[in-house]
Amino acid sequence: MADTQEQPSKAELIRRATDLLPTLRERAASAERERRVPRATIDDLHANGLWRILRPRRYGGYVTDTGTMFEVIAELGRGCGSTSWVYANLISHNWMLPYWPAEAVAAVWDEAPDALIGSALAFPNGRLERTAGGYLLSGHWPFASGVDASDWMMMGGMFRDGEAPPAALLALVRIEEITVHHDTWHVAGLSGTGSKDVSCENLFVPEHMIYDIRQAQTGFSPGTEKLEGDAYRMPLYAVFPLVVAMPMIGMARGAYDHFVEGLKTQVARYSGARIAEYPAVQLKLAEAGVQIDTAHLLCREVWTQAQALVAAGARPDLETRARWRRDGSHAARCAVQAVDIIHAVAGAAADRLDNPLQRHFRDIHAAIHQIQLVWDINAPEFARVAVGLPPANPAL
């Protein structure tokens, strides 16, 4: 495919995301009611070129760094947490797909350059068995965020080969080849993500549509050295917590923005005093702000360090990879703490269904349950490695 696409700057792509915020805020309630991101929003993201980020140039994409992807994810989260979560899930697969064999990349983007790729990555829920020319995939997976907008799916499954330890593999399949269970997503937070169950039974997957994520454990997966852009040589597992932490930073920023704007005119119902003049409110506002900034700076430091290593042709050691996952997890905790502070000081009005604060509160508490962000997993893992013990997680 000929390259006819202008390559916008990082600042321009973030600006396009910012320009969508009023629309995303207006549609947030309907996304929640419909339990999916509205088709109009998916189309708006296409129209603004935001689905082109980290798609290779030959397929009409924008060659940029992972930091651009992460910043756009966070910016969208200021408007709608569910939209940001779905965008993060699907756009991260633009980043991941070029790690696969070239035949797989061509199968998706030669046919339809604007194709979107979702996922169901609960590896233990799927199983892969060898067969002539490939594998048979079976399983039932929850949490397929954004499946309604997806043309392809990355499906996680465990493969057992004799006495060797089981391997976590990814299978790339068309959405038409699996069953989407349309009435399984009834939740208190992130309702608009449409994270439904999916399943298949003995689905044939050709060999070239399978990827072993251990190949990208430290970055520089075989074949990626030929690709334009350093993003495709990043250590996937080590930085993946940022994919789900950045929407949360956006949600926290959205809650903060709404609270600050309200404080400019809000008065106490009984005394008539300006709420913004209360020292206790000022203190809480500062605490929330520094938690959000801390979260953002932690994530930025992770991707900046990772990008610098890749640019130098170096690979992160085990402790660095464990620290990056620790920091992504802690950043998510900081974002939750910021929203909790704001929600607590905002008063009873924060619980009104027409107040965006209650949605940010519910969404961010749903998001923190994502397995990549669980502090009680990532913190001990870092500590084990730091004191010289072997990691408990073989994927690290």
Protein model, in words:
A hairpin with a 2-residue loop joins strand 2 and strand 3 (134-144). The mean pLDDT is 95. This protein has 12 helices and 8 strands. 46% of the residues lie in helices and 14% in strands. Strands 1, 2, 3, 4, 5, 6, 7 and 8 form an 8-stranded mixed beta sheet that branches. It has helices spanning 10-19, 21-34, 39-47, 66-77, 81-96, 102-109, 236-239, 241-263, 279-311, 318-345, 356-367, 375-386, and strands spanning 117-120, 126-131, 134-144, 152-159, 167-174, 179-181, 196-206, 210-212. It starts with 9 loop residues before the first helix and ends in a 10-residue tail after the last helix. With 396 residues, it is of the alpha+beta class. Helix 8 packs parallel to helix 10 (318-345) and helix 10 (318-345) runs antiparallel to helix 12.
Main beta sheet: strand number and arrangement? 8 strands, mixed
| Unreliable segments of 5+ consecutive residues | none
Terminal CA distance reads 37 Å
Radius of gyration: 21 Å
N-to-C order of helices and strands: HHHHHHEEEEEEEEHHHHHH
- Global geometry: globular
What oligomeric state is this?
A: single chain
Number of strands: 8
What is the averaged pLDDT score?
95
Helix count equals 12
Please give the share of residues in helix: 40-55%
Structural class of the helices, strands and pairings?
Answer: alpha+beta
